[in-house]
Design brief:
With 725 residues, this protein is mainly alpha-helical. The chain is built from 36 helices and 5 strands. The protein has a 5-stranded parallel sheet with strand order 2-3-1-4-5. The radius of gyration is 28 Å and the shape is globular. It starts with a helix and ends in a 6-residue tail after the last helix.
């Protein structure tokens, strides 16, 4: 294709640009970006294609790509004001200090009209932290009086005085904004919205009015419209702290916590420090799994509020629970509930903690309370169904069905509800209705979190290439640790949690769960930070440090535990490297019939930004092929470095297979390993309920119930040779 693109003629490029632009205008951004990308590949000097690509990447919050295209467009058309305006907006929404400085340097040297340059420079200078609204000629004393009335909460007086001021000064955006605020505080929603919008019409550059309208729209349950207002406020005043926090909160809720964090760090760098900022930072760090950072910033929020609000304490408890500080987390949930017994984040958070600890009855009480106080919270229902086996006639099914069709439910809550309904219907063996909800839920997830399977193909190809020439058996690393973790790895939903639970039931082993630290550190060791997306062979001198780092990490999290299990799914990718770093470690790879394995994946929603391939049947099958490819790669090179467990063999012959497993881990036999379901350890995976039940064959060959529904996945598996045709 690349050769064809380089051979495109001028008219062909024009035609391709027209098609891409039509798709862009129609909202089909994926088709549009492919079209612009093809043009750029054919001729990198087409400024319009770079400009439009930059706009799309900015809309998708992919600012790293947006900046590259805007810079290219500005280099090709340095006098084009539209390019500089779009670039400035992208920097305001997603740039850090270095990005901003680079933009301003480029702008200073550009041949743009002085007045246009001053406007953009002021955005990052004089009006950075706020804009000066049109006052329509109002006297300073009258402005001060209006502001004082609002600050003192005298909304009726503020409404009356603002109305009087507007009769004399109809061009006062400030008075309109205050009038709208007074209306909103008194519950006069229609009047408030009209006044906010009129303020913006009078002064389109009034950032605070955009922010205030966004806040109002959030209160009205219109988050998508609100986000657009917050975006505009931030582009007008990149340092306006309330707008930064509000936009970041929207982005985190929409599954874009990394973009949110950029904005929040800018607010903090500008000197902002307030409880809402702490809450927003805590939420973003929690979504990014930076739990220690979330705890630290939320503890600061506790200080600022002299003991903590219910919301701050509940969020703090969530982070502490993920850090394994369960006693502290439970205490903070209880403190939050003592302040506000109906706070959804505290009710649901404590329910989830109780669930991970195996106290399903106590968790159920709180989940059901959540159904009442937050009736359209689909996440609450999905979590509940993980440990609740529905039966025919169970009222929770009709409850979920009615709320699924409620027009007021958000797209995210409806998606979560869909997964919950599908699993509940399967429990009662109503197989014919399962996939209506399952397909809709997965389609919604794919829309919210797009994924390109080509990225996975590239990752596997590069990883294999990096490791291909290493002589694994002859390579000796000096100074390695004797620390001997047991890594349990494989595809998600293949039985890895069950295997870990069995091993962790041994008296010498602590189950650490999905730690992930070693796999991340191994990836970092071969990742070339200077050449984004590329990998290089590991530096032998750094490999021992990988093992020591992981040992220190584990001993800090699990003091006194000499033997731990790490059930991190991605460890198989770097198996050989991890073994060199930790020579005494053991590896267990779990295999399962791909039809059941992939069905189980498709039936579940995973934590944000993980397993994004899971929501499309063909991508699932293709991803499975890459998993098999990596395992075959290691089997060819180091077949004696890992032990494979077949899930179906384990459930058919539990004692025989369990004894073989325990021996493969280098452990003496203990009968407790057969009673794994009695283990009281904390479990934080989707298998939180299953691993506390005896082994069952119920899910073996379950795919046969849905053979027609699974045709895309089954066809791809057959095509790749992973199941019989």
């Amino acid at each position: 294709m690349g050769q064809t693109m380089r051979a495109m003629t001028g008219p062909e490029i024009q035609e391709a640009y027209g098609r891409a632009l039509d798709a862009h205008k129609a909202g089909d951004l994926d088709t549009a970006i492919r079209g612009y990308g093809a043009i750029i590949e054919a001729n990198p000097k087409v400024a319009e294609a770079h400009f439009q690509a930059g706009r799309i990447y900015a809309a998708k919050m992919r600012f790293d790509r947006a900046f590259l295209h805007f810079r290219a467009a500005a280099t090709l058309r340095p006098a084009e004001a539209a390019i500089w305006n779009a670039w400035a907006e992208a920097v305001a929404l997603g740039g850090d200090a270095a990005t901003e400085a680079g933009f301003l340097r480029a702008l200073k040297a550009a041949p743009v009209p002085p007045e246009a340059r001053i406007v953009l420079q002021d955005r990052f200078g004089a009006q950075r932290a706020g804009t000066r609204p049109a006052t329509g000629g109002m006297r300073p004393a009258d402005i001060s009086r209006l502001l004082s009335l609002v600050q003192s909460g005298r909304m009726i007086d503020a409404e009356r005085f603002a109305g009087a001021a507007l009769k004399q000064h109809p061009g006062s955006a400030l008075a309109l904004n205050i009038l709208a605020t007074a209306f909103a505080r008194q519950g006069k929603a229609a009047l408030a919205e009209a006044a906010f919008r009129k303020a913006i019409a009078v002064d389109p550059g009034y950032a605070e009015a955009h922010d205030n309208l966004g806040h109002f729209l959030i209160e009205q349950g219109r988050p998508e419209e609100a986000e657009a207002m917050f975006r505009r406020a931030v582009t007008l005043a990149p340092g306006l702290a309330p707008a930064l926090v509000n936009l970041a909160t929207c982005l985190t809720s929409a599954g874009q916590p990394a973009a949110a964090l950029t904005l929040l760090e800018r607010a903090r760098a500008g000197g902002a420090e307030a409880p809402p900022l702490c809450v927003a930072l805590g939420n973003a760090h929690t979504r990014l799994k930076n739990f220690a950072k979330a705890e630290a910033v939320l503890l600061r929020g506790v200080e600022l509020t002299k003991g903590g609000t219910a919301q701050i304490l509940a969020l703090l408890a969530q982070a502490q629970a993920r850090l394994g500080k369960d006693d502290e987390a439970m205490a903070n949930f209880d403190r939050a509930l003592a302040m506000n017994e109906n706070l959804p984040v505290a009710v649901g958070g404590k329910a989830l903690l109780l669930q991970t600890l195996g106290d399903f009855k106590a968790a159920e009480v709180l989940f059901r309370k959540g159904f009442e106080i937050d009736p359209l919270n689909g996440e609450n229902f999905r979590a509940f169904i993980m440990s609740h086996k529905t039966k025919p006639g169970d009222p929770v099914i009709d409850m979920m069905l009615s709320r699924y069709d409620d027009p007021a439910i958000s797209a995210a809550d409806r998606m979560n509800m869909g997964f919950a309904i599908a699993n509940a219907l399967e429990d009662i063996k109503d197989y014919g209705r399962v996939f209506r909800y399952l397909d809709e839920a997965n389609t919604a997830m794919r829309k919210a979190a797009p994924y390109a399977i080509a990225q996975r193909f590239e990752q596997v190809a590069q990883t294999k290439a990096v490791f291909a020439d290493m002589d694994w058996h002859r390579t000796r690393i000096e100074g390695t640790t004797d620390f001997a973790p047991i890594f349990v790895t494989g595809m998600p939903r293949s039985g890895t949690t069950l295997i870990e639970q069995i091993i962790a039931s041994h008296s010498a082993v602590t189950g650490a769960g999905e730690v992930g630290e070693c796999a991340r550190a191994a990836q970092d060791l071969i990742y070339d930070a200077k050449n984004t997306g590329r990998m290089h062979p590991p530096e032998l001198a750094e490999i021992a440090g990988l093992g020591h780092h992981f040992e220190a990490f584990i001993r800090d999290r699990f003091p006194g535990s000499d033997r731990i299990t790490d059930k991190s799914i991605q460890t198989y990718m770097y198996l050989g490297l991890v073994k060199l770093a930790l020579p005494k470690s053991r590896f267990v790879i779990v295999r399962r019939d791909p039809r059941d394995n992939l069905l189980s994946i498709y039936k579940n929603k995973f934590p944000d930004d993980t397993h994004l391939y899971a929501y499309d049947q063909r991508d699932l099958a293709k991803f499975y092929a890459t998993f098999v490819d990596m395992i075959d790669f290691w089997r060819e090179r180091v077949p004696d470095w890992f032990y494979e467990v077949q899930y179906e063999d384990l459930v058919a012959n539990p004692e025989e297979e369990t004894r073989k497993l325990i021996a493969a881990c280098g452990l003496e036999w203990e009968d407790a390993c057969l009673s794994f379901h009695e283990n009281k350890r904390k479990v934080e995976t989707l298998s939180v309920y299953q691993v506390r039940q005896p082994i069952t064959k119920a899910s073996v060959a379950l795919w046969q119930r849905y053979e027609k529904d699974l045709e895309p996945m089954l066809d791809q598996l057959k095509k790749d040779g992973h199941v019989a045709g």
